[in-house]
Design a protein that fits this description.
With 520 residues, the protein is an alpha/beta fold. The protein contains 17 helices and 25 strands. The radius of gyration is 23 Å and the shape is globular.
């Protein structure tokens, strides 16, 4: 048998249990047919074989992003990026420019971080009106838990003024800032104007970007409404119908509590963005201690314990893999109590249930999760964004700063970490995630390079029951392969961020390539 493709002269990190590194990989009909050392590959070459010279650099399995908002990421490409603005004036200049280019068209800004603003608060609708009062404007916080509308936007999107989460000014009039359920209504109202043809177009537009980051598989965490139960999610429906049309594999977690709907759809998993609590940025993550910058506040719980217990038990009985949004330790505790309750009543195990985010957790909870076989879907890049001294984590956690994303302890206690970006809350770049895990601001929480790689490869496959098909570079597995421009095992830890993907291969096909191919 001759190979369709051979990758030679590489440091091929197989990511299998033997931690092997080989020199070459041969691919035929989309599968890995052989691996080896030296020049043993030559017997597999014929005139049609494509040869990729890795140049002594790392060759790894295709990256798996275990928490990715596909449609939201795609839709946001056309939005204004506010991640670097420092003041209301800077926001205003960007809004004015957008309004001038497309008069009367909805202007959408994303990634607004209140901590970076000179004013240390979100702008109100009247302040936005000074910059634009003829087009609807909606601005969204970096975690999408807060939206701000100008007056035109409030009229355009028709948010009920009595909804939970509508902020009022001193005259008891909505000031344009929307949180919780009101924010969920806004999100739903914006989706009403998006049809599947447009979704197809924008999702297609992000595929090359994902491939340039080496992403070959992602776990689609669409929709989700904090403050409201989801029965029908248009973004999830889109992924369900059209995921197979795209080169990157997508595994859907449908964010609903309607178990019968999931069974009728033939899905094996449920959840992803079923909120148990909120976020640290908005002080809605449920903590067992007061926020450092808001004494007396400990966040919110979005579901009562008895409701969580009942829902989790139903998932066990129906043998559905469940993923719950649990960011703070109080929310984690509620989820663990529910899982223990369900396990005691059913004895069912092996479903690889997941908790998403897990930013704040204690040692006892880690040990209990390990015993239950629960996986943690985590976002190491959060530390690069908010974990540095003086950053959002320190502001919110106060004296408890340093207890976020305890990757090392979680790994050591046997909980499997599958890692993702939460795109587009953070950049969908696995290299950034690996760098962040290896260079956690708190040294005792750091992973090794190999452990971080595993979180973005094998563990991501294991988390969706695909470990026998992908996640490692082994004979018989799908040829999802990434070539880097350096040796990730030898480069200094603080330089990992500088590594780039030069080639991405999906099912044996080169879909992204900044190098040259040879033919022999």
């Amino acid at each position: 048998m001759k190979a369709d493709l051979i990758i030679k002269n590489g440091k091929c990190i197989l990511m299998n249990h033997n931690k092997d590194i080989v020199h070459w990989i041969a691919v035929k009909d989309g599968k890995i047919i052989d691996i080896g050392y030296g020049e043993e590959y030559k017997s597999l070459i014929d005139i049609n074989t494509v040869i990729k010279d890795a140049g002594g650099n790392s060759v790894i399995p295709g990256f798996i992003d275990s928490h990715f908002h596909v449609v939201l990421t795609a839709l946001n490409i056309a939005s204004i990026d506010l991640s670097r603005v420092k003041s209301f004036d800077e926001i205003g200049k960007m809004i004015k420019e957008a309004a001038g280019l497309n008069p009367g068209i909805h202007i959408r800004g994303i990634h607004l971080q209140v901590e970076q603003l000179m004013e240390k608060r979100f702008p109100t609708r009247t302040e936005l009106d000074k910059y634009c009062n003829t087009s609807p404007v909606s601005l969204h916080s970096s975690d999408y838990q807060v939206s701000i509308l100008n007056t035109c936007g409030m009229l355009y999107f028709k948010i009920p003024f009595m909804a939970d989460g509508v902020e009022l000014d001193e005259k008891e009039i909505p000031n344009g800032i929307f949180k919780r359920y009101a924010n969920a209504i806004l999100y739903s109202n914006t989706l009403k104007n998006v049809n599947d043809d447009f979704r197809k177009e924008v999702v297609a537009n992000i595929m090359n970007k994902l491939l340039s980051y080496g992403i070959t598989t992602l776990h689609a965490m669409e929709g989700g409404r904090m403050g409201g139960s989801v029965m029908y999610d248009p973004d999830s429906e889109f992924i369900y119908k059209y995921a197979k049309n795209y080169p990157v594999d997508m595994t859907l977690f449908y964010p609903t509590i309607d178990i019968e709907k999931i069974k009728k759809m033939g899905l094996k998993r449920i959840g992803g963005v079923i909120y148990i609590d909120g976020t640290l940025g908005e002080r809605t993550a449920a903590l067992t201690f007061d926020y450092g910058d808001a004494p007396g506040q400990r966040g919110i719980m979005c579901m009562a314990q008895e409701d969580i217990n009942e829902f989790v038990l139903k998932c066990y009985k129906n043998k559905l893999q469940l993923s719950l949004f649990t960011l703070g330790d109080r929310a984690v505790e509620a989820a663990l109590i529910a899982h223990e309750y369900a396990f005691e009543r059913t004895g069912i195990s092996g479903l690889r249930h997941r908790l998403e985010h897990i930013e704040i957790i204690n040692s006892d909870q880690i040990e209990r999760a390990s015993k239950l076989g629960i996986l943690f879907s985590m976002q190491p890049s959060y530390e690069a964004y908010w974990g540095a001294p003086g950053g959002m984590y320190e502001q919110r956690l106060g004296k408890y700063y340093g207890n976020s994303n305890k990757l090392r302890e979680i790994e050591d206690k046997g909980v499997i970490i599958c890692a993702g970006s939460d795109s587009d809350v953070t950049e969908p770049n696995p290299i950034l995630g690996i760098h962040s895990a290896v260079n956690h601001p708190i040294k005792k929480h750091r992973l090794t390079v190999l452990e971080a790689l595993k979180a973005y490869t094998y563990n991501g496959a294991y988390a969706i029951f695909e470990e026998n098909n992908k996640g490692t570079l082994e004979i018989g597995k799908v040829a999802d392969i990434v070539i880097l421009n350096g040796d990730i095992m030898k480069i200094n830890a603080d330089e990992i961020i500088n590594l780039k993907v030069v080639t991405t291969i999906k099912s044996g096909e080169i879909l992204y390539n900044v190098g040259m191919d040879e033919k022999c």
